Amino acid sequence: MWALKAEGLTFRYGELELFRDLDLELEPGAVRAVLGPSGSGKTTLVHLLAGILPLPSGRLWWGEVEVGRRSEEELARLRRERVGLVFQHHYLLDELTALENVLVPGMIAGRPDPGWARRLIERVGLAAHAHQRPDTLSGGERQRVAVARALYPRPRVVLADEPTGALDRANARRVKDLLLELAGENGAAVLLATHDEALVQGLPAWRIEDGRLVGG
């Protein structure tokens, strides 16, 4: 069984065809990078796989669940339960503490687990900063909070779009390593989209070429 599967995805942006009959499969625990320069479609691919953009064609599964033509409400619920998202910008809520930001997915779902949120904050090395607000944290610290928040629901799939693009080299590696380590402990499949080949050196990687994924 796969954790993430896409079949026959085709996507156009105006006259530009970004993807054509794209297929993708990730098994539980698998890690893959998607490499490509700016404008190659990495962010669009992540948004399609996350159900943020509607599928104009093709099929998409999160585990055994086919995303299909579901209502926005049902799609949002499934995404909260099954998909963890990390972006270049942390998208933390400024009025909440680091710990409260990690807890947000549980609060939205009506099943908050402060103990689990605290353990995640500890695992990303921010126990001493748990009650600080984002504007008092460094860029690397904010991104580590974002990683902890993405992993709070114990997702089956983690989609990361340039998650270290705004960080220096040392912080970028730390955030990437934490993301892969914590996701791996939960058996989540990880797709990491980046232009930074050095960051994902040693990882199996696909490249976006002519609307399809090659390599890996």
UniProtKB/TrEMBL annotation:
Any GO molecular function: hydrolase activity
SUPFAM superfamilies documented for this protein: P-loop containing nucleoside triphosphate hydrolases (SSF52540)
Pfam families reported in the protein's UniProt record: ABC_tran
Domain ABC transporter: 4-216
Superkingdom of the organism of origin: Bacteria
Keyword Lipoprotein: yes
Keyword field: ATP-binding, Hydrolase, Lipoprotein, Nucleotide-binding, Transport
UniProt-listed Gene3D superfamilies: P-loop containing nucleotide triphosphate hydrolases
EC number in record: 3.6.3.-
Enzyme class: hydrolase
Family: Belongs to the ABC transporter superfamily.
PANTHER family found in the cross-reference section: IMPORT ATP-BINDING PROTEIN (PTHR24220), LIPOPROTEIN-RELEASING SYSTEM ATP-BINDING PROTEIN LOLD (PTHR24220:SF689)
Record protein name field: Lipoprotein-releasing system ATP-binding protein
Record organism: Oceanithermus desulfurans
Native organism taxonomy: Bacteria, Thermotogati, Deinococcota, Deinococci, Thermales
